[in-house]
Amino acid sequence: MKEALSVLCLALLVSVSEAAVTKPGIGEFLGCLRSWPSPESPITDDIFTADNTTTFLSFYLAYTKNTRFASPNYQTLMAIVTAKNLSHIQATVVCAKSNGVQIRIRSGGHDYEGLSYISSVPFVILDLFNLRSITVDVPSKQAWVQAGATLGELYTKISEAGETVNKTLEQGGIDVLYKWQLVSSKLPESLYVKAMSQVANGTRSGERTIAVLFYAQFLGGADELVSIMNQSLPELGLKSQDCLEMSWLNSTLFWEDLPVGTPASILLDRPSKPEKFFKSKSDYVKKPIPKEGIEKLWNGMLKINNNTVYMHWNPYGGVMDTIPATATPFPHREGNLFKIQYYTAWFDANATKGSLDMMKELYEVAEPYVSSNPREAFLNYRDIDIGSNPSGETTVDEAEIYGSKYFVGNLKRLMEVKAKYDPENFFKNEQSIPPARVKQ
Ligand SMILES: Cc1cc2nc3c(=O)[nH]c(=O)nc-3n(C[C@H](O)[C@H](O)[C@H](O)COP(=O)(O)OP(=O)(O)OC[C@H]3O[C@@H](n4cnc5c(N)ncnc54)[C@H](O)[C@@H]3O)c2cc1C
Ligand SMILES: *[C@@H]1O[C@H](CO)[C@@H](O)[C@H](O)[C@H]1NC(C)=O
Ligand SMILES: *[C@@H]1O[C@H](CO)[C@@H](O)[C@H](O)[C@H]1NC(C)=O
Ligand SMILES: *[C@@H]1O[C@H](CO)[C@@H](O)[C@H](O)[C@H]1NC(C)=O
Ligand SMILES: *[C@@H]1O[C@H](CO)[C@@H](O)[C@H](O)[C@H]1NC(C)=O
Ligand SMILES: *[C@@H]1O[C@H](CO)[C@@H](O)[C@H](O)[C@H]1NC(C)=O
Ligand SMILES: *[C@@H]1O[C@H](CO)[C@@H](O)[C@H](O)[C@H]1NC(C)=O
Ligand SMILES: *[C@@H]1O[C@H](CO)[C@@H](O)[C@H](O)[C@H]1NC(C)=O
Ligand SMILES: CC(=O)N[C@H]1CO[C@H](CO)[C@@H](O)[C@@H]1O
C-alpha cells in the first residue's frame, strides 16, 4: 500500500560507492532469473537492467517519490524486476541470494528515505506495483490488499461508508493551538481534528509568518459537529457554514488538497515521476508544549528559508489508547497526546544540504518538549538521522538505537521473529531489524 510522499541523499551515496563497488555476478544473476520456470507469464518481460535507457528510467522513476533520489546509482543498481506472479518473486529472491546480490523491495516507493529503491552495495529492486489485487469483505470487516495497490484504489473499493464534514480555518493564535493540545486527544472517536502550523506570506511583501490551520473530519452531520466543537474548542468559533458534508470517499480527495469537485476517479491514477525534494522528521508528545515552546518551534520553522515548511500535529487518544502497546509492532499507544510531523520541500538540488541541516536544527529545538528515553519516532516518517547502518550490514548496537525509537518495547520480540524467519539477515536495509541471534 502507499500514500502520496517519500526521500535520501544522492550525492553522498554516489561519492561513497563509486570507487569501491563493482557489480558481481550480474550475468549469473540475470541468467538464473531468465531460466527460472514462470509458467503463468514470462519473467523475461519483467526484467529491466539498469542501462540508463529511457525505458529503464521511466520504470525507476514511476515509484520514486522524492526527487532527492531521482538519479539511480548505476554503480550498484543491477536491475528492476516488475514481478507479475508469485514465481517471479521467488525467482528474484533465490537468484539474488545465490549470487550475493542485495534485494530492495518496493511497494509504493513512498519510503521517506528511499530505502525501498536505494543501496550502496550491488542490488536489485523487486518492484511490486503489478501485484495490486484488493478483496474487501464487509461482513467480517476485513480487506486483503496486495502490496502494489495504491491507497486510492483501496479507498475506491471500500467507499461504501458514511457522511463526512471538513473544515479549514486559518487562525494566528497561539492560544487556540495550546488549547488544542488539551482537548484533541479526548474528543469523541468519530471526530479527528488535526492542527497544522505552516510558514505563510505575511501581509507585507517579503514578510513571512506562521498560520495555523485546523482540519477536522467527523463521521456525522455538520450541526452535531458544531455543537461538539462549541463545547470542546469554542475558541475556533466553528459554524455549520464552515463545513461541507460529503461522502467518505470524497473526503480522501480533500486530504490530498484537491479542489472541491475533483472527480473521485483521480484516485485510480498511478504516479509517473517524483515531484519535489523533501525531508520529514517525527516526534511524540506526551505533555502539552508550553506557549514559549510553540514560539520557539515556529521561529525554527521560519529559519528554513525559501522552502515549503509545515508542522502537522496529529491527535492520538481515541482508539489508539485502547490497543495495548504490545498487541502489534506499532508501540505508540496510550499516553501520547499527539504525533508531530516536521516537513519541508524544495525544488532546487542546491538547496538540499541547507534544508537537511535546518531540519536537524528544528529537531533540536523540539527536544525539551517531546518524548525522551527513547525519543520515539514514527516508522512511516522514516528518518535516517535517528540512527542507521551501512547498506550491506546490520549491527545490533546500531539497530537498538533506531529500533528502540520506532518500536520501543517491541524491538526485542521483533528481533526474535526476524531470527526465526530470516536468520541470515538476507532482507536488510539501513534501518532494518537484526536477527536476535546476531547479538554478541
Ligand atoms: C506523499 C506521502 C504521504 C504520506 N502520508 C502518510 C500519512 O498520511 N500517514 C502515514 O502514516 N504515512 C504517510 N506516508 C509514509 C508512508 O506511509 C510510508 O512511507 C510507507 O512505508 C509507504 O509504503 P510504500 O509501500 O509506498 O513504501 P516502499 O517505499 O515501497 O516501502 C517501504 C519499506 O518497506 C519495504 N517493503 C515494501 N514492500 C515490502 C514487502 N512487500 N515486503 C517486505 N518489505 C517491503 C521497503 O523495502 C521499504 O523498506 C506518506 C508518504 C508519502 C510519500
Ligand atoms: C545516462 O544518460 C544520460 C543521457 O544519455 C547521460 O547524460 C548520463 O551521463 C548517463 N549517466 C550515466 C551514469 O551513465
Ligand atoms: C500471473 O500474472 C498474470 C499477469 O498479470 C495474471 O493474469 C495471472 O492471473 C497471474 N497468475 C497468478 C497465479 O497469479
Ligand atoms: C509567497 O511570496 C512569494 C514571493 O515573495 C511567492 O513566490 C509565493 O508564491 C508566495 N506564497 C504563497 C503561498 O502565496
Ligand atoms: C455555543 O454555546 C453557547 C453556550 O453554551 C451558546 O450560547 C452558543 O449559541 C453556541 N454556539 C453555537 C455556534 O452553537
Ligand atoms: C463527490 O464528489 C463528486 C465530484 O465533485 C460529486 O459529484 C458528488 O456529488 C460528491 N458526492 C458526495 C456524496 O459528496
Ligand atoms: C527560492 O527558490 C526558488 C525556486 O526553487 C528559486 O528560483 C529562488 O532562486 C530561491 N531564492 C533564494 C533566495 O534562494
Ligand atoms: C546549483 O549550483 C551549481 C553549482 O554551483 C550551479 O551551476 C547551478 O546553476 C545551481 N542551480 C540553481 C538552480 O541555482
Ligand atoms: C475537499 C473539500 O470539500 N474541501 C472543502 C472543505 O471545506 C472548506 C471550507 O468550508 C472548503 O473551502 C474546501 O473546499
How many individual helices? Answer: 12
Radius of gyration using CA atoms only: 23 Å
**Bound compounds, please?**
flavin-adenine dinucleotide, 2-acetamido-2-deoxy-beta-D-glucopyranose
What number is the mean pLDDT? 89
Bulk shape: globular
In the CATH hierarchy, the third-tier topology of the largest domain is known as Vanillyl-alcohol Oxidase, Chain A, domain 3
How many β-strand stretches? 13
What structural class do helix, strand and pairing data support?
Answer: alpha+beta
The neighbouring-strand order within the major sheet is 10-7-9-8-12-13-11
Q: How helix-rich are the residues, as a percent range?
A: 25-40%
CATH class category of the largest domain: Alpha Beta
Largest sheet: 7 strands, antiparallel
Provide the succession of SSEs: HHEHEHEEEEHEHEEHEHEHEEHHH
CATH architecture of the largest domain: 3-Layer(aba) Sandwich
Per DSSP, what share of the residues sits in E-state strands of 2 or more residues?
15-25%
InterPro entries: BBE, FAD-bd_PCMH, FAD-bd_PCMH-like_sf, FAD-bd_PCMH_sub1, Oxid_FAD_bind_N
Keywords: Cell wall, FAD, Flavoprotein, Glycoprotein, Nucleotide-binding, Oxidoreductase, Secreted, Signal
Domain FAD-binding PCMH-type: 73-271
Family: Belongs to the oxygen-dependent FAD-linked oxidoreductase family.
In short:
By secondary structure, the chain is an alpha+beta fold.
What does the model show?
There is one protein chain. The radius of gyration is 23 Å and the shape is globular. Helix 2 (26-34) packs antiparallel against helix 4 and helix 9 runs antiparallel to helix 10 (352-366). It is built from 12 helices and 13 strands. It has 440 residues and is an alpha+beta fold. Helices cover 28% and strands 20% of the residues. It folds into 2 domains: 3-11 and 161-380, Vanillyl-alcohol Oxidase, Chain A, domain 3; 26-127, Uridine Diphospho-n-acetylenolpyruvylglucosamine Reductase, domain 2 (2-Layer Sandwich), CATH 3.30.43. The longest helix has 15 residues, at 352-366. The strands form 3 sheets. The chain has a 7-stranded antiparallel sheet with strand order 10-7-9-8-12-13-11. Strands 1-2-4-3 form a 4-stranded mixed sheet, sandwiched between helices. The model is unreliable at 1-21 and 165-171 (pLDDT under 50). It binds flavin-adenine dinucleotide and 2-acetamido-2-deoxy-beta-D-glucopyranose (8 copies). One 2-acetamido-2-deoxy-beta-D-glucopyranose binds next to loops.
